[in-house]
Amino acid sequence: MTALPEVRTADQDAPRSLAARPAGADRTFRGIARGGGTGVLLIMTLVGGFLLYQGYRALETRGFEFVTTEAWDPNSGEFGIAAVMAGTFFIALTAITIAIPLSIGTALYISEYAPPGIQRSLIALVDLMAAIPSVVYGLWGLFLLQPVILPLSQWIATYFGWIPILSVSDFDPQDPLASPTVFTSSTFIAGIVVALMISPIASSIMREVFSQAPLGEREGALALGSTRWGMIRAVVFPFGMGGMIGGMMLGLGRALGETIAVYLIISPVFVIQPRVLEKGANSISALIALRYSEASAFEMSALMAAGLALFLVTLVVNFGASMVIARSRSGAGAEG
Amino acid sequence: MTHRTKLRRGIRSLVGVAAAALLVFGTLNTGAAAPAAAIGATHQPISGIGSSWSANALQQWIRNVGNNYGWTITYDDRGSTAGRQGFADGSYDFAVSEIPWELKDSDIVDPRPARGFAYMPIVAGGTAIMYNLVVGGSRVTNLRLSGETLTKIFTGVVTTWNDPAIAADNPSIALPAIPIIPVVRSDGSGTTAQFTSWMRKQYPALYTEFCARVGKANCGITSNFPFVQGSAFIAQNGSNGVAGYVAQEQYVGAITYVEYSYALNSGMPVAKLLNAADYYTEPTAQNVAVSLLGAQINQDAASPDYLTQDLTNVYNNADPRTYPMSSYSYMIIPTRVEGRFTEDKGLTLGDFSQYFLCEGQQQAEVLGYSPLPINLAAAGLDQVQRIPGADPTGKDITACNNPTFSPDGTNRLANEAPFPSECDKRGATQCADGTGGAKGSTNASTAGDATAAAAGQADAAASPSAAAPGAETALDPNAKPIVVNAVPTAIDPIRRLTAPSVVATVLALLLLAGLVVPPWWAKRRRAQAAGADAGAATGAAAEPVERPSRTPAEALRNVTARVRSPFTRRESKSDASGDHTP
Fold first, then answer.
1. Distance between CA B391 and CA B395 in Å, rounded?
2. pLDDT tens, B465-512?
3. What integer pLDDT is reported at residue A335 of this predicted model?
4. What was the ipTM of the complex prediction?
5. Is B411 within 8 Å of B461 (Cβ atoms)?
6. How much is the pTM?
7. Domain regions of chain A by residue span
8. Rg of chain B over CA atoms, in angstroms?
9. Superfamily of domain A86-285
10. Chain B contact probe: residue of A167, A179, A270, A283 with most B CBs at under 10 A
11. In B, which residues are within 8 Å of A290 by CB distance?
12. A323 touches B: beta carbon within 8 Å
C-alpha cells in the first residue's frame, strides 16, 4: 500500500487490478455470513427434499388425483388435498381480511398519532402479542371467543346471507329456535383467531416502513397545508405501500401454516366448503396435527405429501412478499 | 514340564470358574421369577399415550403415585388409535386402548406390532350419552333413549328433538322442535370404536344404510367416525373436546358419546339407555359391573389377544340393572426390553400397574368408572409380571379393598347393585331424577339445578347409594340376588425358561464337560497306549526327549483345540447375555 505506483509506458497502460486483501476479521465475518446464508438455503432444500422423499409413495399412488380429490382416507386409498388446501386458503384469507384493517390501524396509530411517551410501550405490547403461544390463542378462541361471537355470525348471516360466501345452509333467520351451533367451529372463528396471531408481525413491518417515510416530504406536505390525514395519504401510504403489501403477505404465509389454534377450533370437513360462517372447516396443518400421531406408514406418507404442498405454497407466498417489498420505494433502501 | 502343567491348570481353573458362573446365572435365572431377569434399580420416568376414555382415571392415579411415591409418569390422551400407533413405533413406554390390534370386524387392517406386548385391563366404565337440552328455560336431566333411537340420531336419521321416536321414549318431556347436533370425535378414538361396534351389532340395518350414505366402502367397526356431509354433525377432537362442546351453555341440542366421568366432571346429564330388560339405565358403577358379567374374556393365555373382551352378551344382557354400552379399557404393556424401554422403566410401570389394579380400583367409582372384578384384577396383576424389570413380589389381592371383591369370589358390587325404579321401565311415566353430573331433577328450579350440577361430583363420591337416588325404595322385594359368574380364574404363572438362561445352562454344562472329559479321555488313551506299548521298551526313551521340545504355545494350541467350541461360543454368549445381567 505504501509502495509508489510503477512508471508505465503507454503500451503497458492497462487498468491496475485492485485486489483488496481482506483482513482476518473480514474473512472470518464473510465466512460466517456466507455459511449462514448457505445453511439456510441448505436447510430449506433439505426440508423440501425430506417431504418429497417421505411423501413420494403417496404421490406416486395417487398421481394428479392427489390435487383434485376431496377426501382423506389414505388407508382405503381415497385421499387428496383439494378440500384441505381450499380450506387452508379460506381460513388464511378470512384472517387476512380481518388483519389488514387491524394491523394498518395499529401501525399508523403507533407511528403517526400516538403520543411519543406511550409509543415505546405500545410497540412492546404489540410485540408481546406475537409472543403468546398459539395454543393459548386457540384455547381462548375455543372457550371464550367462540360462544360470544356466535350472535355476530348470526347477524352477518341474517343480513348478508345473500352473498354466497356469507350464506349458511339450513339457517332460517325467521326461526326463533334455530340452533347457534351451526355457526360454531367455522372458518370465520378460526380466521379471527389467526388474524389476531398474524397482526403483530404485519403491523410491526408496516410501522417500520411508515416511520421511514422521508421527513422532507412529510414537512413539504404539511407546509402545503395538508392535514395530518392528508399527509398520511399523500406521503406515508404511497411510500409504505410495498411494506404494507409485503407485511400482509408475510402474515398470509404465517396464516397458511397456523396449526394448533385452527386444530382446536375447527370441526374438520373434507369437502370444499366456502361458506365461511358455517360450521366445518379444515386446513393442511390442522389435518397433519390431527392425524400424524395415529397415522399408519402410508397415511404418514400422504400427510407428508400434503405438507409438501403447503410448503411449496408458503414458499411462493413468502417469495412474492419479499419481491414486492424489495421493489417498493420503502423496501429498496432496506433491502426488504 | 512345569510350564505345561501351570498353563493347563490356569486354563482349567478359568474354564471352571466360567462354567460355574454360567451355571449359576442360568439356574438362578430360571429359578427366580423368570421375567425379572433384573428388577429395575430405580423408578425411571415413563410416558404413555392413548385413550381419552379412561384418561380421567389414569390421570388421577398418576397424580396419586406422583404425590405419594414420587414416580414420574406422563400420559397423553390423544386417543386409542394414536396410542396403539405410538406404542407400535416405540416412542412411548405404554399405551391405553379400548380396542385391540386386529380387531374382528374392523374397517381397517391394523396389524399387531413387532414389539412385544400384552393387554392388561385397567378399569371398566360406560360410554355415556351426554346431552345439552333446555326446555322452557330449565335443563332437561332425565332424557331416556332406546338403542334404536340413539342409533338413528347418530346415523342422521332422526334430526330434530321433537321426533316421534324420541317422544315415545320421553312421554313427560315437552320436546322442542330444535335440531339435534350430534357431536362426534374427529380423531381416531376407541370410544368411537366401541360405539360403532354397538350400533353395528345391535342395529345392522341402520348402520349399513349409514355406511352407504356416507360412501364408506367397508362397513366395519371404525375408530374414525365417518364425516357426514351436509348434516348437523360436529366433529371435535378428544373426549375433552366433545364433552367441552356439549357442555357449552349456548349449544342447546348437542349430544355426544363420551365416558361417564366426563359428564360428571362437566356437570351435564346423560341419557338413560334402554336395556334388553326394557329398563332405562344410567352407566353407574354398579350398572356397569352388572352388565360386564356378560362380557366374554379371552382366557387363552397363549393368544396375542389374551384378556380382550367380546361384548355381544353385554349389549343383550337380560338383567334389568345393566347398561348396554359398558366395556373395559386396556393398557398395552411391553413384554420385552426394546428400544427405549428399560428394566428401570419396567419397575415404574410394574409398580404403577400394581397400584392401580389394586388400590386404584377403589377410586374408580368416584371418578365415574367401575372397578375391575377380581378375576380381571388378578389376571392383570399376573400380566404385570411380564413387564421386564417389574417387581416380582406381587400384591396380595385380598388386601386391595376392591369394592367388587367378596369372600366367596362373586362380584360384590354387582350383587349389591340396586334394581332400577319402576319409573325407569319402558312406557311408564319417567323418573324426574337427574342423571350424570346434573343430579337436579328436571322440574326443579334453575338455581337448584345449578347447585346440584356443581356438586355433582361430590354427590357421586359421597356414597354408592347416592349414585342411584331412591334406589332403596325402588328395590324389587321379589328380586333375588343374581348369581354372578365372576369366579376367579386360575391363570397359569407366566414363569417360563427364558432364552438366555437356557443358553447359559447348556453352555455351562458343555464347558464342564470340556473340563472333565479331555483329561479323563487323555488318561484313558495314555493308559491304552501304555498297555499297547508295554512290550516296546524303546518308546519309553523317545518320549522324554520329545516332551521338552514342546513350547508353551504348542501346549496352548493343544488345549484350546480341545475346548475350542465351548470357548468361542462362550464369548458370543457373554455378549448376548450382557444385557440381562443385573
1. 10
2. 333 333 333 334 444 444 344 444 444 444 445 666 777 777 878 877
3. 42
4. 0.80
5. no
6. 0.74
7. 86-285
8. 33
9. MetI-like (1.10.3720.10)
10. A179
11. 186-187, 237
12. no
